[in-house]
Amino acid sequence: MKRILPPLNALRAFEAAGRLGSFKEAAAELHVTHGAVSQHVRLLEDWLGAPLFERHNRRVVLTPAAKAYLAEIGPLFGQLAQATARYGFPETLSRALSVNAPATFTLRWLVPRLAKFRAGHPDVDVKVETSNEPVESLKEIYDVIIRGGPDTFYGYSMRPFLSEERLPVCSPALLERVPLRIPEDMRQHTLLHTSSLPRLWPDWLARAQISALRPAATLIFDHFYLTLQAAIDGIGIAMGPTALVSDDLAAGRLVAPFAGPRLPSRSYCTYVPDGKSEDDLVALFRSWLECEGMCLPSGKRDKP
User: Fold this and answer.
1) Which InterPro entries does UniProt cross-reference here (predicted)?
2) Which of 59, 104, 191, 206 lies 20 to 30 Å from 5, alpha-carbon distance?
3) Nearest CA to 13 among 24, 2, 1?
4) What band does 301 get if pLDDT is binned at 50, 70 and 90?
5) Which CATH number among 3.10.50.40, 3.40.50.720, 3.40.190.10, 3.40.50.2300 corresponds to the domain 94-163+266-294?
6) Helix 8-20 to helix 64-87 angle, to the nearest 10 degrees?
7) pLDDT grade, residue 58 (50/70/90)?
């Protein structure tokens, strides 16, 4: 006999929302948007021809019939999970972790270290998406969001893991062509700017007490990672955040010609939805980030 089954994705969304009592928490668990859960629930309601939830502002309550329905189908999901673990292949099963982080941070700090995380946790699939949108403006639900801070957002726990300062950096080859012995020597160089961070150089020059300095030239880029790449390529001097240039300083691709002054900067922090704060995988990744952050070199180098 042919089985008549409701849409399984819709059923899964209903089960999670009913069990957790929240579309938002269901979305976080299923790694989808709040809107996707709502759409799946409406689809199931249309299929069944009956409402499943009473909607009260920001909370939802199961109807009496839906509560009885959930009581019958809920255990089936648990049995399915147990059967999969029992008859599946645990050594090939992967767990997924979704991460959202700024592009420059991802390119210059996170990606070079992910191989180390994967080596220690080969069963974890890390999905990284880049964005500079504020935490509260993100449309998707992520396990871990990395942004500057510390800031406070309703519904998220925050933990800092990486601090930094900003100071001038350039390639060793540039210094061989035109030496930099004192900050005033930068009048012979090109200063590299990022359009989204217009105050970096003016603030540093003010701290160095040379606000009136006029460089030989300026170049402005629309992305910070382009500014740093231009510095590595010997085009000019950039204001480098110590966290994001630490590997380049250690490898000798960049040097910091002056010990100071250094501009203070915001720390990098992890923001995790409250429903995921106790998740073992999220906790593991957070702890790994904090350990890597503690291992960051200071970025100080001797003058050439």
Assistant:
1) LysR-type_TF_proteobact-type, LysR_HTH_N, LysR_subst-bd, WH-like_DNA-bd_sf, WH_DNA-bd_sf
2) 59
3) 24
4) very low
5) 3.40.190.10
6) 110
7) low
